Amino acid sequence: MFAPPTKPLAERMRPHILAEFTGQQHLLQPGAVLRNAIETGHIPSMIFWGPPGCGKTTLARLIAESSHYQFFSLSAISSGIKEVRAVIDTAEKTGKSILFIDEIHRFNKSQQDALLGAVENGTITLIGATTENPSFEVINALLSRCQVYILKPLDENELLSILDHSLKNDEILSKKHITIKEINALIHFSGGDARKLLNALELIVNQSATDNIIITDKEVMDVLQKKAAAYDKGGEQHYDIISAFIKSMRGSDPNGAVYWLARMLEGGEDPKFIARRMLILASEDIGNANPNALLLATACFQAVTMIGMPESRIILSQTVVYLASSPKSNASYEAIGNAAELVKKTGDLPVPLHLRNAPTRLMKNLDYGKGYKYSHAFEGNFAEQEYLPEKISGYVLYEPGDNVREIEMRRFLKSVWKEKYGY
After folding, report:
1. What is the pLDDT of residue 399?
2. The pTM is what?
3. Does the pLDDT at position 230 exceed 60?
4. pLDDT confidence of residue 423
5. CATH number of 156-227
6. pLDDT (tens digit, 9 = 90+) per residue, 259-316?
7. Where exactly does CATH 1.20.272.10 map onto the chain?
8. For 236-324, which CATH class?
9. 128-180 per-position pLDDT tens digit
10. Phi/psi of residue 107, nearest 5 degrees
11. What's the CATH class of domain 23-150?
12. Tell me: the pLDDT tens digits for 336-364?
């Protein structure tokens, strides 16, 4: 017979009672709001918003255990309306129940809507976990029925406490002679994530050919650099890959852009995060060279929000290829940057009188609006007049790009402004 597989260290060390839980003292210290709710047994529906490995799942389980609620757990990645309704049906029969939904930000609107009635009438107490801002990712109707608690990354002392507890109490580790000579690399790698810390420790221990193990910063870096995951949503590579993705589209390389898109999707990146970045690029890097890019990027974000994975990858790929293959211009991006710098240098310059609104007689007597030329009353719907404050009259902030559409914009501006915008 085969021996059953050993659970990972992080799972073996998961606390079983609230007193063993490490971190989040702003919520759990005596007198804190969540501690009071647990002690009184009045558990509201809630959303835990915090980074990976800070204890969201563990805390939800401990709340159910402490309050004697039946505990149901779903992952928004693999569950849908059918699974939600099955839990609700069971909860109606069994009574006090907590439904924990991990990564609730991945539920679309219709899936979140399916929770509303049961949360409203108390059939279930919802605990959702998310690494994303719930203001953007959870529908207002559900958010208004939940308390939002912000969970913080674990600090160094909390991580050291978890490490020490694991070395002393884990059945496997406690049989080995493990000396942690240097701790900085382990703490740095974990990034406030207890799961990453324990996974790293277990990986290093398993790499050792002896039970006498001395852990140094160098050994940690050597092992982790070889075995680290290919994509870490919360780590440095997350930012490196999104940077490569954006720069590939900016550089008009659809092959590179689609490759980095696949890397992110295979690594579990939130499709809406990717779509939001493309919205920015469509305006910052393409702009008026192809105004349809922003329209397609907006439609992409809306479609991804409605559909979800895995089908969203097709929509994302279409949009990535379109953006990468579009002509580029950062002229509008440069224009607002130039204008912001000018505002910082010149301060609150007065609005020219002829551009001011004059809704009262006093304002008219003060010449507000006097001399303003209504463009549509003139030939070609254009009347030359000054639109900048007198002190900065003549400043040119927008320089059209060298592409078909902006060359036409340049020609139009030169034709109507004559001398002012010579470009």
Report:
1. 84
2. 0.55
3. no
4. 56
5. 1.10.8.60
6. 999 988 887 788 999 999 999 999 999 999 999 999 999 999 999 988 888 888 999 9
7. 236-324
8. mainly alpha
9. 999 888 887 888 899 999 999 999 989 999 999 999 999 898 888 888 888 88
10. -70, 135
11. alpha beta
12. 989 988 888 888 888 888 888 888 888 78
Within the chain, all domains assigned CATH 3.40.50.300 are found at: 23-150
Amino acid 156 reads E
What is the 3-class SS of the chain, one letter each residue?
Answer: CCCCCCCCHHHHCCCCCHHHCCCCHHHHCCCCHHHHHHHHCCCCCEEEECCCCCCHHHHHHHHHHHHCCEEEEEECCCCCHHHHHHHHHHHHHHCCEEEEEECHHHCCHHHHHHHHHHHHCCCCEEEEEECCCHHHHCCHHHHCCCEEEECCCCCHHHHHHHHHHHHHHCCCHHHCEEEECCCHHHHHHHCCCHHHHHHHHHHHHHHCCCCEEEECHHHHHHHHHHHCCCCCCCCHHHHHHHHHHHHHHHCCCHHHHHHHHHHHHHCCCCHHHHHHHHHHHHHHHHHHHCCHHHHHHHHHHHHHHHHCCCCHHHHHHHHHHHHHCCCCCCHHHHHHHHHHHHHHHHCCCCCCHHHCCCCCHHHHHCCCCCCCCCHHHCHHHCCCCCCCCHHHCCCCCCCCCCCHHHHHHHHHHHHHHCCCCCC
Task: Give span(s): CATH 1.10.8.60, the chain.
Answer: 156-227
Please name the residue that has the structure tokens 């978890």. Answer: 162
pLDDT score for 4 = 46
Q: How much is the pLDDT for 205?
A: 87
